[in-house]
TrEMBL record:
TM ranges: 6-25, 171-192, 341-361, 390-409
Enzyme Commission designation: 3.4.24.-
Subcellular location: Membrane
GO molecular function: metallopeptidase activity
Keywords, alphabetical: Hydrolase, Membrane, Metal-binding, Metalloprotease, Protease, Transmembrane, Transmembrane helix, Zinc
Taxonomic path: Bacteria, Bacillati, Bacillota, Bacilli, Bacillales
PDZ domain: residues covered: 194-267
Membrane disposition: Multi-pass membrane protein
Main location: membrane
Origin superkingdom: Bacteria
Top-tier EC class: hydrolase
Name under which the protein is recorded: Zinc metalloprotease
Length: 417
């Protein structure tokens, strides 16, 4: 249960900020965002604020922002269709009632002759079966279907109406939000826990270890070991690792006084290499500037590592069965959570970078695939046919789901069979 909760919290946060990036830039561009969803499947919880319905759905495996014009409108007025019109004081249409018109006795019932709900914003129809009238559509206006209101989206509120730059930034904002989230988390870790520094100072000691047994204390400054001057933490580590089971004379400074302490590193074999350990962690510091610097360094480092891993996958150096899907990530998240909140925060930041990079891959159905079509549009000077683009994304989504099934089955065999 702890594993499931940890996975839902971490992955839910990553998806939330990813989709929030899309939402904020879409709203900034003036696009009507119908729904902001975390998860897929049936709705578990929802509320509406302004124009957007915010929902949490049953399956916590992703999310989406449903923007006007991005998927086919479900309601279309056709010639001969009988609808009810609810008018404001100036005679403009506020609501178009598709069915259950008896619920609205004050509605003006018409038989539709013509309608333009994108550009002209009007509807014409026959009232009383004889007289043809034209009604202007107010903004905002709504369809009422099955007692549910759906906002009508004029063309200027649809995704396709925006400039290439606005559409590009709206799609790019999701992955960028993941990188920003990772940076912020790394900075927070530095502010709360501290960040490692390469100074010749004893950090936190393990409960059991040669350092604690010999009398070393956190904060001791190491001047020299066996007469050799120590300038950095890396030099201390290298010296200790090179002398397993050999007494080392530590010359330290504590509270302004110098003293000598003899420490004998314990012998450990790690990945076939025999080294010495004394049970001491690297020294940590806390500062705003240092935390920001460390956050930038960590974000760059993990971005580079993930890109290297993707390169190995492409070149065949990294096998498909080494990939992890939702099951593998959930299991790993549970194990990391057992190590403490700061390890979980760092794991979440790494996953956030990974999500951002994967979404930028130029593959259909991913943000990178959308950006690729925008690049083609920029070169051609006109957008690719929407039906053709939609078909490419559909095929790409199907292939991604197939890959997800393969990876998930590998995870199940790896961890449970």
């Amino acid at each position: 249960m702890e594993t499931i909760i940890s996975f839902i919290v971490v992955f839910g946060a990553l998806v939330f900020f990813h989709e929030l990036g899309h939402l904020l830039l879409a709203k900034r561009a003036g696009i009507l965002c119908r729904e902001f969803a975390i998860g897929f499947g049936p709705k578990v919880f929802s509320f509406k604020k302004n124009e957007t319905v915010y929902t949490i759905r049953l399956l916590p495996l992703g999310g989406f922002v449903r923007m006007a014009g991005e998927d086919p409108e479900m309601i279309e007025l056709k010639r001969g269709q009988v609808v009810g019109l609810l008018l404001d004081g100036e005679g403009q249409v506020e609501k178009i009632v598709i069915n259950h018109k008896d619920d609205y006795p004050n509605a003006r019932v018409i038989e539709v002759e013509d309608a333009d709900l994108e550009h002209g914003m009007y509807v014409t129809g026959y009232t009383d079966g004889e007289r043809l009238e034209r009604f202007a559509i107010k903004e905002p206006a709504f369809f009422v279907a099955d007692r549910q209101e759906i906002q009508i989206a004029p063309y200027h509120r649809q995704f396709a109406s925006k400039t290439l730059g606005q559409r590009t930034m709206t799609i790019l904002a999701g992955p960028l939000a993941n990188f920003i989230l990772a940076l912020v988390v790394f900075i927070l870790i530095g502010l709360l826990q501290g960040y490692p520094v390469d100074k010749p100072i004893i950090g936190e000691l393990t409960p059991e270890g040669a350092a604690r047994a010999a009398g070393l204390k956190q904060g001791d400054e190491v001047i020299a070991i066996n007469g050799e001057r120590m300038e950095t933490w890396a030099e201390i580590v290298n010296t200790i690792r090179a002398h397993p089971n050999e007494p080392l004379q530590f010359q330290i400074e504590r509270n302004g006084k110098e003293m000598n302490v003899t420490v004998t590193p314990e012998e450990k074999t790690i990945q076939g290499e025999t080294i010495g350990l004394i049970g001491v962690y690297q020294p940590m510091e806390k500062s705003v500037f240092g935390s920001v610097k460390q956050g930038l360094v960590e974000t760059y480092y993990w971005t580079r590592q993930i890109l290297v891993g993707l390169g190995q996958l492409i070149t065949g150096q990294f096998q498909l069965d080494m990939l992890s899907g939702p099951v593998g990530i959930a299991v790993s998240t549970g194990k990391v959570a057992e190590s403490g909140i700061y390890y979980l925060m760092k794991w979440g930041a790494i996953l956030s970078i990974n999500l951002g990079i994967v979404n930028l891959l130029p593959l259909p159905a991913l943000d990178g695939g959308r950006l690729l079509f925008f690049a083609i549009e920029a070169v051609r000077g006109k957008p690719v046919d929407r039906q053709k683009e939609g078909m490419v994304h559909f095929i790409g989504f199907a292939l991604l789901m197939l890959l997800m099934l393969v990876v998930t089955w590998n995870d199940i065999q790896k961890f449970f069979l």
